Amino acid sequence: MPARSDHSRDIDIEFRGVSRHYGEIRAVDGIDLSVPKGTFFSFLGPSGCGKTTSLRMIAGFEQPTAGDVLIEGSSVVGTPPHRRPVNMVFQHYALFPHLNVFDNIAYGLRQRAPRPARAEITRRVGETLDLVRLGGFESRRVWELSGGQQQRVALARALINKPTVLLLDEPMAALDRKLRRDMQIELQTLQRDVGITFVLVTHDQEEALSMSDSICIMRHGRIVQAGGARELYDEPVNRYVADFVGKSNFLDGTVADTGASGAVLRLADGRTIAGRYTSTATPLAREAKACIAVRPELVSITAAQKPAGGMAVNAPARVKNRIYLGEQTEYLVAAEGLGDILAMASKTSELASGGFSPGDEVVIGWPESAALVLAEE
Amino acid sequence: MMKRAGIRSGNGVTAMLLLPTTLWFLLLLVMPLVVILVFSFGERAPAGGYQAAFTFEQYLNLPARLKAFTNTLTLAPLGTLICVLMAYPLAYYLAVRAGERVKVMLLVLVIVPFWTSFLIRTYAWIYILGGRGIPQLLELVGIEDVRLINTPTAVLIGIVYGYLPLMIFPIYVSLEKLDKRLLEASGDLGASPWRTFLQVTLPLSAPGLVTGSLLVFILLMGEYLIPALLGGGKVFFVGNALVDLFLQSRNWPYGSAVAIGLVAIMMVAIAIYLAMVGRQQARDDVSLV
Lengths: 377, 289
Hints:
The complex is a heterodimer of chains A (377) and B (289).
Chain A (H helix, E strand, L loop, with lengths): L10 E12 L2 E12 L3 E5 L6 H9 L6 E6 L2 E2 L10 E4 L11 H10 L7 H14 L15 H13 L5 E5 L7 H18 L2 E6 L2 H7 L2 E6 L2 E6 L1 H6 L4 H6 L4 E10 L3 E6 L4 E6 L11 E6 L5 E4 L9 E12 L3 E8 L3 E8 H7 L7 E6 L5 E4 L2
Parallel strand pairs in A: 3-8, 3-9, 6-7, 7-8, 13-20
Antiparallel strand pairs in A: 1-2, 1-4, 4-5, 9-10, 11-12, 11-14, 12-13, 14-20, 15-19, 16-17, 16-19, 17-18
Helix pairs in contact in A: 2-3, 2-4, 3-4
Chain B lengths: L1 H39 L2 E2 L5 E2 L5 H4 L5 H32 L2 H12 L6 H12 L4 H7 L11 H26 L2 H9 L4 H29 L3 H6 L7 H11 L3 H33 L5
Antiparallel strand pairs in B: 1-2
Helix pairs in contact in B: 1-12, 3-7, 3-9, 3-11, 7-9, 8-9, 9-12, 11-12
């Protein structure tokens, strides 16, 4: 047994330089992370980024080729899945088709030695079914259930074992949009109620952002940025994160001037635009390739006759497309010298301006604080 | 009205689709069975064959062929059991563990023997089990006086050799269909690999196991060639008795009674087996087909 580190009581999962290589393919390539107890943690990234492999190393289905995985401060490298204090909700639930709902949920308890008494199992299964709001479904066959119900059974089957960490592998992938939203809220509530650490794997940034306390964005087996939803959205470390999390307008250029807190970029047509560095970024060198990122909701759109005041950038533009999204309106405009720019107008600003139609001449702009100077990678 | 007409023409198509099978079934299965049933209550004509009568004499004589029945009823289930025990690990290896290349190679090896006549392959076993085969090899290492050919063991070896592929394929298919994530889920929930096998793999491969064992058992009950060649007239099945009665002594009514006896035993055995499996299914909620 390796020595338990001091902070082990507060850290449920820890990766120390963990790699998983398959021959030449580096599925996970030297990552370090720690997940504090009681956190809702997410691995976020496109398929093949290493997020699922990372999760499977926590579950014990994969072993790292290098580095150490610790659960509650103890190394679990070499420990088989059935001896780990974690349980998983599988991507397509992997419910046992030959067992009914009760037996599926009781499965984990029945593997214990000594096996709990029959009455105890019945009581715990009933409790857990109530927790996932499936009371009375005990004798149903799993293939008779809807996707949402199957997911609840999968959750109950894992939670009944009172794991240290609950692992969730794309649990929403098989649900339709409305149900997914409901389950996200439910899962978040459930996590607070049971108080255990949840580790989620998803490629859906909205899902990760809305549910997690902490998110780890991965790419090519490495961590690009880890932090809270707000940090990732407002202070992305580079263009990849800004692009992956939410929508952004990107203007490519080279660094013309640089300071401690911001830089001026020269665009292809010679125009210069100033922006700030994010708190997570390292300052760039002069002449380095970089980009300015502006979130669409920070782009103001006003009638050509009355440009908004206090903007660092003001550019005449013509409305190309308008999409009414209910709570806000999305405009795609062709801005002079800047190319196509996406702007989100809130309901209030729409009411004030009266809205615009395709073909209208407008002025777009943004304050300097809205322009983020980001490295390409 | 339109709807009714539609249904009627649909019925017509169904009837036409089923007609060939129905004729086949009536002509080639039901009719011969009826003939055999009628024969079994008849008498042997003086020159052999059948002579109309109504007597239970043939059935009362069945105990005279008891040895054929006991041989069949011990060696067929035993052969089926050994086939299950040998086929399951191989099928499991093929479906769960083998890499793609090894799998294809082994599957081909299982099929290859079918390219040669079964008769020839069984003749080969006569040599292998005969005095200059395995017994001679055993003598080289000091084990003497081993007799294999014309013993129940020889028949059993022949049976397992011949019928193993029929057992491997259904089990392989059901294991191949098995969702491997269920095995991970079981491990994740705390089950050791052995318990996972007992609680997930085995129940979910039951359909293949049932199909394979029924297939092998039914065919074995009617087996004739293997006991004839490897049993050398000493270890004979009901099938051999039938050949003997119909072709040698030309006692058709007695042969018919023996045949009916075999059919009856087989039906009872299969009914019991399916009832057992069915009860298991009801208990475990396993879908078997």
